[in-house]
Amino acid sequence: MKHIVNQLNKAFENRIRLGIMSILIVNEGVNFNRLKELLEVTDGNLASHLKSLEALKYIKFTKSFIGRKPLTVYDKTALGHKAFSKHLAALEELLNKH
Question: What pTM was estimated for this model as a whole?
Answer without folding.
Answer: 0.91
